[in-house]
Write a structure and sequence with these properties.
One of its GO terms (molecular function) is ATP binding. Residues 7-238 form the ABC transporter domain. The protein has 320 residues and is an alpha/beta fold. The protein folds into 2 domains: 7-226, Rossmann fold (3-Layer(aba) Sandwich), CATH 3.40.50.300; 231-295, Alpha-Beta Plaits, CATH 3.30.70. The chain is built from 11 helices and 14 strands. Strand 4 (61-66) and strand 5 (69-70) form a beta hairpin. The protein is globular and about 75 Å long. The relative contact order is 0.13.
Length: 320
């Protein structure tokens, strides 16, 4: 695998005309072939960062390179390496998928015979070939989303950036999109994903960065970052009705959600048998248990929640 990052950011800053500092010195590397998540709350700077990388926004300072190609000095060449799938569906609903793909490739100088071959390949890969000649407005929501990816892949990008690709779609469509994106990544394309669905990031991505207040406050391998969590949360369903008071277990937190379930927070290294033993002594029998939230959501809340915002900014300032 090449040692040159698919995307390399150094000291990236953006201050808008209204003096808002959207990016405050971003350093980031995304390795070739990675499936990378860029996460952050609304207003954190994600859209600005993507806008700079895709040449829709001019940076105030810093460096951006795509597979070693400097975006400022060789903008046209760098942009040929990138495919962008925006959040909004922005193709002509009265065109057919085949024509949408062929015409898009034509904008980038791909000869029509080659564009037609690519269109068939990408529409088949997106499981849309049987819809290639129908009006795009007749496609389902999930098909339209997959068409956006097929169109972006028409230029054979080495780096595919997706901005909230499953926003506002139901779970069935979202999981269908996951399958498509995994296939794109398996074919060798580096993928950067922004999403508010943290389950999506945890399922798809190998590495991630969390941005808040214009700074990267955490980045690294998904498994390594999730291992930092020292607390786990569970929901316990019990037989019968809860008594008036719950037992106390040192180091753990037990709260009644309703008459038939308990919210449990405990250190990751605590033995669950201690919890079950204390509940059993109180005459409470656990029927089933499930994880309260996914681990990435817990990490995200801890890093970007109100209590941690100032600390995150301070940490970012020390790192920059």
């Amino acid at each position: 695998m090449s040692e040159t990052p698919a995307l390399r950011l150094r000291g990236l800053k953006k201050t808008y005309d209204n003096k808002v500092e959207a990016l405050k010195g971003i350093d980031l590397d995304v390795e070739p072939g990675d499936f990378f998540a860029l996460l952050g709350p609304n207003g954190a700077g994600k859209s600005t960062l993507i806008g700079v990388v895709s040449s829709l926004v001019n940076a105030s300072a810093g460096e951006v390179s795509v597979f070693g190609i400097d975006l400022l000095r060789q903008r046209s060449l760098a942009m040929r390496q990138i495919g962008l799938v925006p959040q909004e569906i922005n193709f002509n609903m009265f065109e057919k998928p085949f024509d949408i793909c062929v015409n898009y490739a034509g904008f980038y100088g791909v000869p029509r015979p080659e564009a037609e071959q690519r269109a068939e390949h990408e529409l088949r890969a997106a499981h849309l070939w049987d819809k290639a000649r129908v009006m795009s407005r007749t496609l389902s929501g999930g098909m339209k989303r997959r068409l956006m990816i097929a169109r972006a892949m028409m230029t054979r990008p080495r780096l595919l950036i997706l901005d909230e690709p499953t926003a506002g779609v139901d779970i069935e469509i979202r999981r269908g999109m996951w399958k498509t994106l995994r296939e794109v990544n398996a074919r060798g394309t580096t993928v950067i994903l922004t999403t508010h669905y943290l389950e999506e990031a945890e399922n798809l991505c190998r590495n991630l960065a969390i941005i808040d207040h214009g700074r990267i406050i955490e980045q690294g391998p998904m498994k390594q970052l999730l291992a930092k969590l020292d607390v786990e949360g569970f929901l316990l369903d019990i037989d019968g009705t809860l008594p008036a008071g719950l037992p106390r277990v040192e180091g753990a937190k037990l709260e009644a959600v309703d008459e038939h379930s308990i919210d449990l927070e405990m250190p990751r290294d605590m033995d669950l048998n201690r919890i079950f033993a204390a509940l059993g002594e109180a005459g409470i029998r656990v029927r089933s248990m499930r994880t309260k939230t996914n681990r990435l959501e817990e990490l995200f809340v801890r890093l970007t929640g109100p209590a941690d915002a100032a600390a995150g900014q301070t940490e970012g300032a020390r790192a920059s």
